[in-house]
C-alpha cells in the first residue's frame, strides 16, 4: 500500500477510470496545493476540502481522482497524510502528469 512513496507508479485500471475526464479538476487541485505556505496534513486537508466545497463535490468525487493520480490506486493510506509524506514536489508532479493525460470531464 505504500510503494507509491518510494517509486513512481502508473495508475491501475480502477485508478485510471477515476482519473479519466478529470484533467481540469486535477489542474485546479495542483494550483490549490501549490499555493499552500505550509505542507502539512492540516493545510492540505483544508485546501482540498475547501476546493471540494466550492465545486459542491462529495468527498469520494473530490478525493478519489487525487488519490488515483498520486498513488496509482484507489486504496491507500489516508490521503492527506500520504500527500504530506510524499512531499510537495512529487505530489504536484504526479497530479500534473495525470492531469495532462486525463482529459476534461
Mean pLDDT, to the nearest integer, reads 92
Share of residues in helices: 55-70%
What do we call the CATH topology?
Arc Repressor Mutant, subunit A
Strand percentage lies at: under 5%
| Rg on CA atoms, Å | 12 Å
Shape: globular
Q: Could you tell me how far the N terminus lies from the C terminus, measured between alpha carbons in angstroms?
A: 28 Å
Total strand segments: 0
The parts where pLDDT drops under 50 for at least 5 residues are none
CATH-scheme architecture:
Orthogonal Bundle
CATH top level assignment: Mainly Alpha
Please state the structural category. mainly alpha
Tell me about the biggest sheet?
Answer: none
Number of domain modules:
1
Number of helices: 6
H/E series, N to C?
HHHHHH
Amino acid at each position: 500500500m505504500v510503494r507509491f512513496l518510494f517509486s513512481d507508479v502508473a495508475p491501475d485500471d480502477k485508478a485510471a477510470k477515476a482519473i479519466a475526464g478529470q484533467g481540469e479538476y486535477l489542474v485546479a487541485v495542483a494550483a490549490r496545493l501549490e499555493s499552500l505556505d505550509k505542507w502539512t496534513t492540516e493545510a492540505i486537508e483544508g485546501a482540498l476540502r475547501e476546493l471540494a466545497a466550492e465545486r459542491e463535490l462529495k468527498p469520494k468525487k473530490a478525493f478519489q481522482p487525487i488519490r488515483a493520480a498520486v498513488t496509482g490506486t484507489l486504496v491507500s493510506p489516508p490521503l492527506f497524510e500520504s500527500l504530506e509524506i510524499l512531499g510537495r514536489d512529487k505530489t504536484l508532479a504526479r497530479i500534473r502528469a495525470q492531469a495532462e493525460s486525463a482529459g476534461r470531464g
